[in-house]
Amino acid sequence: MALQSRLQHVFSKPALLNQAVTHRSFSADHNERLEFLGDAVLNLAVADLLFERLSSLPEGDLSRIRANLVKQDTLHLLAVELGLPDVIRLGEGEARSGGQKRPSILADALEAVIGAVYLDAGFTAAQTLIHRLFKAVEINPTMEAIGKDPKTELQEWLQGRKMNLPLYKVVGTQGAAHKQTFDVECEIIELNFSERGIGGSRRAGEQAAAAAMLQTIKAKAKK
Q1: Cβ contacts of residue 113 below 8 Å, gap of 6+?
Q2: pLDDT in tens, 37-69
Q3: Where are the alpha helices (DSSP H) in 8-149?
Q4: What is the pLDDT of residues 149-164, one digit of tens each?
Q5: CA dist., res. 43 & res. 166, Å (int)
Q6: Furthest-apart CA pair in the chain: how many Å?
Q7: How far apart are CA 151 and CA 157, in angstroms?
Q8: What are the residue numbers of the active site?
Q9: What pTM does this model have?
Q10: Rounded Cα gap, residues 127 and 142, in angstroms
């Protein structure tokens, strides 16, 4: 498979790669579980990369830079460079609506591919792939000035007060497979706060829920 050549990884379990490029609109054996796993592997590998390259920066700045490196826009560009639009497997309706170009689908598929490599050959192989993907991405201390997304802002607010990170979970989905929306809950157990957000992908739903939680926190602080 040409994709394996571009990944520079030959799968011992090719079914993992097939699943990684399969959208839920195409088959019940889709890539969302691999995406979940790949998201965690990606965050760890990028954190390790930043820890090594930007040794003088404090934790807060490193978190912000990581958030900008693993956000949808960045992953979408990397997915296009990797050729995922040509191999993503979509249901008929999703394909007709231009799903092979949709940033959320491609970003999620890239995370799923990373998850597949991790399951196939372990963390070192996945980390090597991630380092290769980000090789052409400029990473420097000036990135700390880039604005924070809601999830990063919420994380930093909690960490600044020595609280645990929020918990995110999908509590519902609506719509046809090619136009699905995700209802995501964000919970801060220590504050007994819970808010929800809706987005066209799990990632977008989490950002919406985090934004709602920030509004709640700021409103409580004014009282």
Answers
A1: 7, 17, 20, 21, 34, 38, 82, 84
A2: 999 999 999 999 999 888 888 887 888 788 888
A3: 14-20, 32-53, 59-69, 72-82, 92-96, 103-121, 123-133
A4: 788 889 888 888 888 8
A5: 16
A6: 60
A7: 10
A8: 39, 111
A9: 0.71
A10: 24
